[in-house]
Design brief:
single chain, 99 residues, mainly alpha
């Protein structure tokens, strides 16, 4: 009798543990899906902002000087990079004076 009660209690504890584990897994998956969806929405928002900024900056009604200013705004010349950007900068200056 006592052995059967202990076995029944053990089975109930195992079932309760499995149910709790399944609940934890579901909650973790829901949090992950929410984070993933938030990241997708943020990325889409940033892309839309960048596209609208680019279309405003690179519109056809800009003067020659304004268009080069827009190009320079799109390029981060102040970034801390180990790559040598001097040839890229000189190429941009040559293109600016050539047109």
């Amino acid at each position: 009798e006592k052995v059967r009660e202990e076995a029944e209690r053990k089975r109930e504890l195992i079932q309760a543990g499995q149910a709790e584990l399944e609940q934890m897994v579901r909650e973790a998956e829901e949090r992950s899906a929410k984070r993933r969806q938030a990241a997708i929405e943020e990325s889409a928002r940033r892309e839309q902002e960048a596209a609208s900024k680019n279309s405003l900056l690179l519109g056809s009604d800009l003067s020659k000087e304004e268009s080069w200013t827009a190009v320079c705004e799109l390029i981060d010349f102040k970034r801390d990079a180990k790559a040598d950007l001097s040839s890229f900068k000189s190429l941009l200056i040559q293109l600016k004076h050539a047109t």
